[in-house]
Amino acid sequence: MENTDIIIIGAGAAGLMAARTLAKAGKNVVLLEARNRLGGRIHTLENGTSLQHAELGAEFIHGDLPITQGLLNEAGIKYNSASASMWNYEDGKFAAEGHVIEHWEEFMERIMQLKHDTNLEDFILQEFPGEKYAGLRESVRGYVAGYDNADPKKASAFSIRKEWQNEHEDAQYRIEGGYRMLIQYLADEFKQAGGHIFTNAVAKDIDWGQYHVTVSTDIGITYQARQLLVAMPLGLLQAEPGLKATISFDPPVDYYTNALKSLGFGAVIKVLLEFDEAFWYNDEMRQMTGADLEDMGFLFTAEAIPVWWTQMPVHRPLLTGWLGGPPAAEHLNTSDEDMLLLALGSISNVFKIDLEKLKEKLLTWNVMNWTADPFSRGSYSYDTVETAEARKILSHPIGDTLFFAGEYLYEGTAMGTVEAALTSGLRAAEMLLEYK
Q: 264 near 119, Cβ under 8 Å?
């Protein structure tokens, strides 16, 4: 049995940020992580693997974000611009993005006038009915599913308005060596400050009273502390009790559990395909497509795997496929091999390459279905109509003893990002430090 000041469950970005902050402030902290690695939904493939430094989880820094970039600068970790052109493939043709979606200005005007929040699906059906707006409705649904990983039937129209109102061409960055560099830095800082990390520690039962917590793992190891910070993915906190890696509280915290269940949590599948050459850049492809894809960063299609991106500005023969939202959730039980076939079929259709020939060009691949992953059960959060009220509840501790942290508690414009997780972890640590 371990006794300490604070136990943190979850060694993702939020948990590690909180742990590092608390330990450096002199607190005795134990960090429990269910996986055999740190980082949670950050998962950079390690040195020595064929897809070295490729990201199965978080990949980009979306804009100039103070906490993420501040930590990287502090650690001396380099990050480089990943800004590149966006292309569309539609009706058999490539087009550099920049074309305006029909009725888009009208959509933004109407959503800005919205007085009472509703889910986005109801909003577009009510405000933009009929065949005239069919293309607009599909574009809105596709963007919400792809970018926000959200279900339009649940996503808050107010939240989407806030996000799209602030949407501009932010700089994009990638970290040299991947996000694992940041995770390792936080972990090293935590351990140097006297913190303890236990991996393969699947928390199961939490018995608590004011200023006393006992956490029991699935193999019967117990840890005791004065306070607990739960920094697990929202998908686990929403899952039915008894499923792998879920936790139960005694006494129950139903008020908080109900608040957690009212938040939105997305679905995503990420596919990495490494080929023997970056054929999308070669002269033959240029002649066939009638387009110079030399600076292509992102490609948006109507295929089974609709969104793809390259490693620009590096010409690495790696394509990353992305399927988000309800279409990804439908593939909860689809095998990795079947997802690979969907991905190859999508690339075959877009680039007019025979499927068997494409398979011959494929060197290695990886599929990460985050919704099927038992330690995450989804991708990242999105706001529902009920989120604002739920967040008020979850942002306050229970009996000065149980605290929560995670990207789902973030209220800024960088929703669903590593920045959101780091911000929440820092805030939770600052709250805990108010207690002597």
A: no
